[in-house]
Amino acid sequence: MAMEDMIPACADIDKAGYWSVECWGGATFDACIRFLNEDPWERLRIFRKLMPNSRLQMLLRAQNLLGYRHYEDGVVDRFVDKAAENGMDVFRVFDALNDIRNLNRSINAVKKAGKHAQGTICYTISPLHTVAGYVEMAKELVDLGCDSLCLKDMAALLKPQPAYDIVKAIKQACGEHVRIHVHCHATTGVTMVSLMKAIEAGADCVDTAISSLSLGPGHNPTESLVEMLDGTGYTTALDKRCILNVKNHFAAIRPRYAEFLSNITGVETDIFESQIPGGMISNMESQLKQQGAANRIKEVLLEVPRVRQVAGYPPLVTPSSQIIGTQAVFNVMMGDYKVLTGEFADLMLGYYGATLGPRDPQVLELASNQAHKEAINCRPADMLKPEWDTLRSDASALPGCDGSDEDVLTFAMFPQVAPRFFATRKDGPKNLGKDPSTVAITSAGAPTPASVRDDGKGPVVAPINYNITFNGKSTKVTVSPA
Amino acid sequence: MAMEDMIPACADIDKAGYWSVECWGGATFDACIRFLNEDPWERLRIFRKLMPNSRLQMLLRAQNLLGYRHYEDGVVDRFVDKAAENGMDVFRVFDALNDIRNLNRSINAVKKAGKHAQGTICYTISPLHTVAGYVEMAKELVDLGCDSLCLKDMAALLKPQPAYDIVKAIKQACGEHVRIHVHCHATTGVTMVSLMKAIEAGADCVDTAISSLSLGPGHNPTESLVEMLDGTGYTTALDKRCILNVKNHFAAIRPRYAEFLSNITGVETDIFESQIPGGMISNMESQLKQQGAANRIKEVLLEVPRVRQVAGYPPLVTPSSQIIGTQAVFNVMMGDYKVLTGEFADLMLGYYGATLGPRDPQVLELASNQAHKEAINCRPADMLKPEWDTLRSDASALPGCDGSDEDVLTFAMFPQVAPRFFATRKDGPKNLGKDPSTVAITSAGAPTPASVRDDGKGPVVAPINYNITFNGKSTKVTVSPA
Fold first, then answer.
1. With CB atoms 3.0 to 4.6 Å apart as the test, which of B52, B104, B128, B446 could cross-link to A441 if both were Cys?
2. Residue B417: count of CB within 10 angstroms of its CB
3. Are the beta carbons of A196 and B160 closer than 8 angstroms?
């Protein structure tokens, strides 16, 4: 969503009484430079200015920062410093494999910057994942000095009873004073109940989204959570009037983004069988479609849990979800482990960190042979050499790069996308929102009007310009509805 | 939905393990004869045949049966007998005012027919409605001989804590053996949690809808409820494979009915303020639109609670929701109680039964003057004379009426609609489902193709006419997909 579509809601969000406002992270950063021609650092500064009373929060992929590889510690430190300097307050730090060694450096960096470090446990289901295991990880995160913990359920797999059991057990093991946040998606239709149970078990904060941007693969609705607690003895600090304003604002904006919305509008409980997050399924579908094999999605869905087992049961979250999903596609298309992606080989060889389960020794050998490297057991970032100076000189050579640390970090995160963004940045932000009537026409396969305006008497479809080649001659033609 | 679109799912529904299948009632009966040219009694017989192992369930408006007025006891008895004879097992009987006297006759009729009588408590919120009051009503229903009780939350107002408190209190007062069903709509996004709390309090059965027809103003998704209970010690009797088949069937059918779907796709918590069910709001909106006053909906929403107070705080459910809603529209358009609808006058004068609260004496006097009748305190149906013979002779005179008791009852329920239905019945059922691509094009407001047909090879879009301006000259051009 374009920044300009969020600005009018900021004053109400700032006054609403949220514990924090999650407003920045990998996907928004990526969308800013890839699609919106918007500087993500400037976006953060605007949020900071418009929400002076709010804790701004981001999701940080620990040693991966906002990218898809491990960064050397110096880059991690610098990223955290710069995010803090530009206005970030709360860093929710997670590692896709729940490898505590990968969380260490970034959490320390957040502490050094004087900001709130929230250590994150990625929730997943496997024969090896237990309440006791999650409690162990919680203890380690507390020992690292985290200011709070987050139980992160990125795939909407957290059912009410485990939600209760895990939160209760962590509170018992780490102390009631340890702050626990619970983050659930709504996809499966059970997690509103999981939030209730987590609250009963002592969770201090739960994540929601304003109702007009909630549900489907998103989060549970804020207003419903407020109402749900009525009479239970639990309350939120939210101002209903403010959140109504926020709701109404985004209810008006949402239709402009119809073409970007998920197909999942109701609930999808198949996820409990496949344990594959919704976004991952659509990724795999588009990979298969590119190879003319869209009809093989069911085989891929069955293959994913097998690949996950081979890899030692990693949680499925960026980047492990993409790595496992792509390998599953490869296995179905080309035969089991006939070709390994470079990333999957790295995952097998420990270059993303440790997994809870052992990895399949045969596939591990294949990975080693293909990648021409040995498995490692150390913290992956220990293998990396300082890279800041190279990143700086590479970035600075790009047209439009302003030489700031922020620009170098943008390049470091997205080396493929940043060059084009630097070159076009001066053109200013693009808003990809569209008048809903236009979008509906497009999706129906009908001709798209060049522009549609509303003059108060209902939408007026503007004339459309076509180049028409007719008998070998090209001519410009203007078309309007009769 | 046309019967033919439900038939393929019946075998799986029958095997799925549901306690009962609600498949008949006022709205489906009405839709059958008004829109689908389908005999609702024949529909019931088909369900009976296709689901031999299932309890078929209906919602019965007690003395109102499936209509909007009180029927004389003889008609009530006959309706229940005929419904039982044609295959109905479970009669969920409610009165819009929770007046136990209105429930008496129909519950007795169900018992006499040897069927399951479920006495219903309509849940609402007002300064006068208390847990103790609901418990009192529960006791009275048990004393009437009900086989089970239903707590019916038609507006999605039942929050988790009251759900727990009411079910718990009823079980304590009436005994754990008294079977309690909980019926919630999903509109406000809190009631999945309310179902969990009701189950914890001892509810024996909760209502859901298959996920592909769930949420919005409908019910919570069946599959999510099954998953929600995992590990809690509570289970359902459902077969996941069967319900997956049911889900997939209706997921494929649903898009054909896109034009009939509610605009509420997410959640709507404003209902907690206005306490107005979603369907009632859309009714009032269309009434206002007919009078060119669509912009006055907010005034009407504020007026509804005032009218409800004047009328003694009836629950808002058919027919009281329509009566209160229409009077609120009249008050806004013409001034407070300048004109009373006949139905509102009757409500004030006790012709629908007793309300929990006292009625406003001034408005009551207006009602009495306008309707030229006195307020009553007796059971409304006690005022009615036997009417079966008249109904029979009136119905039998209609072209196409087959003279059966079923036809007489159809006429009795819907005297305005039945004559046309009897006349056209021989033409057979109409299916109003449409190819989704047709609906999308039409609703987008784009140039509408003259016709779209499906010849079995996918939809065929008919030519579109454009005015084309070309080299300054305007010409009419016909365009069709190449």
1. B446
2. 17
3. yes
The C-alpha atoms of residue B165 and residue A231 are separated, in whole angstroms, by 10
Amino acid at B151: L
Per-residue pLDDT tens digits for A79-103: 999 999 999 999 999 999 999 999 9
User: Cβ of B212 and A444 within 8 Å?
Assistant: no
Supply the pTM of this predicted model: 0.89
Nearest to A265 among B265, B445, B469 (CB): B265
Say if the ipTM goes beyond 0.90.
no
How far apart are alpha carbons A39 and A421 in whole angstroms? 8
Cα(A189)–Cα(B203) distance, integer angstroms: 20
Q: Which residues of A touch B474 (CB under 8 A)?
A: none
Q: Are A203 and A236 in contact (CB under 8 A)?
A: no
- Select from A220, A228, A267 the Cβ nearest to the Cβ of B160: A228
Q: Residues A271, A275, A279, A282: is their CA dihedral positive or negative?
A: negative
Q: Give ∠ CA A38-A40-A41 in degrees, rounded to 5.
A: 125
Q: What distance in Å separates the CA atoms of residue B346 and residue B84, rounded to the nearest whole number?
A: 31
Q: Nearest CB to A477: which of B214, B228, B470?
A: B470
- What is the mean pLDDT of each successive set of 10 residues along chain B, which is 482 residues long? 97 98 95 97 98 98 95 98 98 97 98 98 96 98 98 96 98 98 96 98 98 93 97 97 97 92 81 77 83 88 94 93 93 96 96 96 97 96 97 98 98 97 97 78 39 39 52 58 42
Which helix or strand (DSSP H or E) is residue A329 part of? helix A320-334
Give the A:B interface size as CB pairs under 8 Å: 156
> CB neighbours (10 Å) of residue B215?
27
> Tens digit of pLDDT for each residue in A251-301?
999 999 988 887 777 888 888 887 777 678 777 888 888 888 888 988 998
User: What angle is formed at CA A154 by the lines to CA A196 and CA A278, rounded to 5 degrees?
Assistant: 115
Substitution target from A253, A262, A267 for chain B, most B beta carbons within 10 A: A267
> A224 to chain B nearest CA, in Å?
5
How far, in Å, CA of A326 to CA of A321, rounded?
8
Q: Which residue of B has its CA nearest to A476?
A: B470
Strand B56-60 and strand B90-93: the pairing is parallel
Report angle CA B310, B27, B116 to the nearest 5 degrees.
95
Interface test with B, best of A211, A224, A475, A476 (most B CBs within 10 A): A224
Dihedral of CA atoms B84, B56, B263, B8 in degrees, nearest 10, equals -120
